[in-house]
Amino acid sequence: MTVPDLPTRETLTPIALCFPLRERDGVPEVLLGLKKTGFGVGRMVGLGGHVEPGESDAQAACRELAEESGLTTSLEDVNLAGVVDFHFPARPAWSMATALFTTRRWGGTLRETAEIAPEWFAHQQLPVERMWADAEHWLPRMLAGERRHTVVVLADDNATVRASWSVPLD
Ligand SMILES: Nc1[nH]c(=O)nc2c1ncn2[C@H]1C[C@H](O)[C@@H](COP(=O)(O)OP(=O)(O)OP(=O)(O)O)O1
């Protein structure tokens, strides 16, 4: 397996995701969302989006969670749970440096928005067949509490995984 030369993380589009976590009857659950518009439409994704200029990753995670789900969380309540670089060598403009945050405290009322239909999933029953193929490479480990820096290189179909590796997050 050969991997093309990859651009550095700093040159990738910054994205922040926020994963609310809860327990129901002793079963740990995570909030994901069906993407209804734009990039990745039809896929089950982590809630989040672009980090705006002047905004920290954590601020973007809080803002995007509120915009996409109605849940409001604060900078004190989000925790950096890992980072993932998604490289799309066949479509470099799609490549992104993603910061993963979790939160266990929030307010507001969960609602479907124009962009996302949110849904809770047990950690052991993730909708992997509806997610990006690479999600299996990083999401279960993040949910298990492993803070890692994962690199995913997509294949030329921009969907399947060409290569993936990870190291503990510094
Ligand atoms: N390879 C991949 N694996 C994965 O699991 N999620 C991916 C992915 N590539 C992209 N995503 C998801 C993460 C996130 O939910 C979304 C990227 O953010 P978006 O492009 O949706 O941001 P938007 O353009 O909707 O946000 P804003 O315009 O900033 O509101 O795509």
UniProtKB/TrEMBL annotation:
Nudix hydrolase domain boundaries: 11-144
Catalytic reactions of this protein: 8-oxo-dATP + H2O = 8-oxo-dAMP + diphosphate + H(+); 2-oxo-dATP + H2O = 2-oxo-dAMP + diphosphate + H(+); 2-oxo-ATP + H2O = 2-oxo-AMP + diphosphate + H(+); N(6)-methyl-dATP + H2O = N(6)-methyl-dAMP + diphosphate + H(+)
EC number per UniProt: 3.6.1.56
Keywords: Hydrolase, Magnesium, Metal-binding
InterPro entries listed in its UniProt record: 8ODP, NUDIX_hydrolase-like_dom_sf, NUDIX_hydrolase_CS, NUDIX_hydrolase_dom
Superkingdom: Bacteria
Gene3D superfamilies linked to this entry: Nucleoside Triphosphate Pyrophosphohydrolase (3.90.79.10)
EC primary class: hydrolase
Cofactor: Mg(2+)
Family: Belongs to the Nudix hydrolase family.
Name by which UniProt lists this protein: Oxidized purine nucleoside triphosphate hydrolase
Protein's organism: Tersicoccus solisilvae
